[in-house]
Write a structure and sequence with these properties.
The chain is of the alpha+beta class. It is built from six helices and 15 strands.
């Protein structure tokens, strides 16, 4: 099925039953085995409110055959076409009593391998030797993100809230959105389901109120070459 019409109109789509219970359990086992052995790893971030693994697909590449099952590959190809590769991935584990929340924002940066002064690439940052930069708007408009839900996600345990169609307005300051006229959706997703979203879609997450864990694998995709010698630092071709 092609979900492109909904994604173009709303900026996101929720698709349940992409992963079987067995596939989810395999992912959980691989993640738990890796995290038990690597608590000091610099790409791991741990607090009482959040555990995160940056560069997830490089830290635990054994997960990739389970992530890119036939169903997910069919969804990507039928919706967006061929030639897309991974540009960034993060695993989020929001514990049962987490007070962690994220205010409304757009995903405006990409990860690159070095800092090169290139026209219209701005707001450079570096964390743990990882360069991030805000690229031209058209690069962000042509990328997409898939969030794989390891647990059932509801409004009580921090499901994403989004402003429908806000991805179509370009890069905006949140105060320039009129919340009286905008439609907000809480994106509840079943365990084993996915959410596809565009980077410029305004999204947020509330605190957990129901003592239920929320684990998500967040993967960003592109098929664009960067100019002037810039390269995606986490680029991984999907086999």
């Amino acid at each position: 099925m092609n979900y492109n019409t909904e994604i173009s109109a709303e900026g996101f789509s929720i698709i349940n039953n992409v992963f079987t219970e067995n596939e989810i359990q395999n992912l959980i086992s691989l993640i738990e085995n890796k995290t038990a052995d690597n608590q000091e790893n610099t790409t791991f971030r741990k607090s009482q409110d959040l555990f995160a693994i940056r560069q997830f697909h490089k830290e635990i590449p054994e997960t990739l055959p389970f992530i890119f099952n036939e169903k997910l590959q069919d969804i990507i190809e039928s919706t967006f076409g061929e030639g897309f590769f991974i540009t960034k991935s993060i695993y989020f584990d929001k514990p049962e009593k987490s007070n962690w929340f994220v205010a409304y924002h757009q995903d405006l940066t990409i990860s690159v391998d070095q800092k090169i002064e290139v026209e219209n690439f701005e707001n450079w940052t570096v964390k743990q030797n990882q360069f991030a930069v805000q690229p031209p708007t058209e690069i962000l408009e042509n990328n997409f993100t898939i969030r794989i839900h390891i647990d059932k996600t509801t409004k009580e345990n921090g499901a994403l809230k989004v402003i429908n169609n806000s991805h179509s307005k370009g890069i905006l300051r949140i105060e320039n959105l009129d919340f009286k006229t905008e439609k907000e959706t809480i994106c509840e997703v079943e365990k084993g389901g996915i959410m596809i979203m565009k980077p410029l879609l305004f999204h947020a997450s509330n605190k957990t109120t129901n003592n239920e864990r929320r684990r998500v694998i967040h993967i960003e995709f592109s098929k664009q070459q960067l100019p002037n010698g810039l390269e995606w630092s986490e680029k991984t071709i999907i086999n």
